[in-house]
Amino acid sequence: VCGLMVAALGRPFHLGMLYDCRSDSLVPGVTLWDPEDLVKDTLENSQHNTEFNIHASDSIENKSSALNIEASLKASFLGGLVEVGGSANFLKDTKTSKKQARVTLQYKTTTKFKQLSMNHFGRGNVKYPYVFGQGIATHVVTAILYGAQAFFVFDQEVSENEDHQNIEGNLQMMVEKINCFSVDGKGTLKMTDDDNAKAENFSCKFYGDFALENNPVSFQEAVKVYTMLPKLLGERGEHAVPVQIWLLPLTYLDSSATRVAHEISLGLVQETQTVLEELSGLQMQCNDLMNRNVTSHFPEIGTKVKDFKDMCLQYKSIFQTSLSEILPLIRGGGKGERELAEILKKKQQSLFNSNTLQKWLDSKEREIDILQIIIEVMKDTTMLTSEKAFDIEMFKSKAKYVVCFAFTSLNDKEPYLRHLSEYLKTLRQDAELPRWYFLKDVLDTMRRQVYLFVNFAEANKDSANAQFLSTSVSGSGHKGGKIYLYKDSKKQTDNFEPPSKPGKLRAIERTHDSVTVELSPPKYGSSEVTEYLIEYCVDEEYEWKEIKTPKDNIICVVSGLRKINSDQWDDQLYLGCEVGGYISSNIPCHSI
């Protein structure tokens, strides 16, 4: 006879209870013996043991191991068949961000072992034998190990400039020291100032089989609770709960009873676990992306990521529902394992396969990274989060000209998201149009326009007749971004190219009282130049003078000078633009 040992997971087991291993569910209200018979012939032994473990991994595998969950029960939990309680709620706690450092402290203690005696076994000793023919259960609880467990989950947020491994290492060192801390008779925790400072950024979540007035939320509170745990079980362990269960097949008592026909293979359980862990990883990445400050500037990006996350959660629910339906059928012999293998195969061949999901989310992270760089470059530009906000700003603006850097591709439709929302039944995938942030020519053009915009804005920061904004627009037909120009609140063009700074003057001829110079037009935006202005000074003793010349006249003679030499001549060239004012050849700017 092959018995089973399963984790209680906070479920209300008692000796003699029936259990259905096909669905890993308890069968309450039906029994084989009278309660009096169960109490009379029960054996009990003390079994005291206490363990203290530290877990740095947040994986399903590690959590299952900590709770002594074997593969079959784990499959049922993954499929949503098992409703856990008490300390086993730890199974459902997953990190919400990849920027979380996490270390878990496990406290585990046992108190007693109770079992049925041989007087209960044998068909003649069963009070209600008709139960065997009802097919409602496969096993009966024959022994229970009592005790309690507690999990203290410590988290710390890791910033961009911190090393995740170092933070996690420091967190683990503090958790390992918990046994060294003490609480005095007044309930005061004895910790050094240094340890208190280290623990300041820790948060704590508690999952346990103990009745607490308040769950700890800080490291210091967790230490106090930890020191109290042995007392909370009661003097005789009367508050202990089932932690481990032994099950006997009903076929041992009656060969006609329902049996488990087939167990789920370890390989399929592992594959199922991988699917759900990958979906959890995607959810964490989505949370991190939605918390980036880019999404506050461009809400449409955050909306797409949220839609993606919601659809992944919906698929996870559908996937788990299919597991909850197929697992009992396989175990009962109504279906074969190939049915579960087919579910996993279809998942990998669908639009919800892990590689495609990860590829889309990575591409969205790339887009956010690029936008983050642009935002940092445009840190002095007013960023507007919607076209409505832009319209309001335009209405309030007193400037004659408004120059706006428009992000034109952020509202582009996402065919993949549409396909996910329709939950495609076929394996055919429509071709995806390349996203703007993967097109080199678009990125090169956008980089040039960003720096033209920023340099032009910097050169005209003191201008009263020009205002500089940035926003996202839809339906423009342009990829990446364009610079829009508005005059008196009316759009003049969606392809404005601000002039870059002019080059240095080049002297091409000198006489005793004149210099012929050649002007260097700007590399970009020359069509927006209205005129040039030359400032020159022959000697420090003389004041600066200026000459204006039309934009088409790039050769200019500066005359009426005293005798000069090259060491005494100093100059700079300005270009005039209708938008803003003059731009000097000497201003510092970003290279383009």
TrEMBL record:
<dbReference type="InterPro" id="IPR056072">
    <property type="entry name" value="SNTX_MACPF/CDC-like_dom"/>
</dbReference>
<dbReference type="Pfam" id="PF21109">
    <property type="entry name" value="Stonustoxin_helical"/>
</dbReference>
<dbReference type="InterPro" id="IPR040581">
    <property type="entry name" value="Thioredoxin_11"/>
</dbReference>
<dbReference type="InterPro" id="IPR013783">
    <property type="entry name" value="Ig-like_fold"/>
</dbReference>
<dbReference type="Pfam" id="PF18078">
    <property type="entry name" value="Thioredoxin_11"/>
</dbReference>
<feature type="domain" description="Fibronectin type-III">
    <location>
        <begin position="501"/>
        <end position="592"/>
    </location>
</feature>
<dbReference type="InterPro" id="IPR003961">
    <property type="entry name" value="FN3_dom"/>
</dbReference>
<dbReference type="InterPro" id="IPR048997">
    <property type="entry name" value="Stonustoxin-like_helical"/>
</dbReference>
<protein>
    <recommendedName>
        <fullName>Fibronectin type-III domain-containing protein</fullName>
    </recommendedName>
</protein>
<dbReference type="Pfam" id="PF24674">
    <property type="entry name" value="MACPF_SNTX"/>
</dbReference>
<dbReference type="InterPro" id="IPR052090">
    <property type="entry name" value="Cytolytic_pore-forming_toxin"/>
</dbReference>
<dbReference type="InterPro" id="IPR036116">
    <property type="entry name" value="FN3_sf"/>
</dbReference>
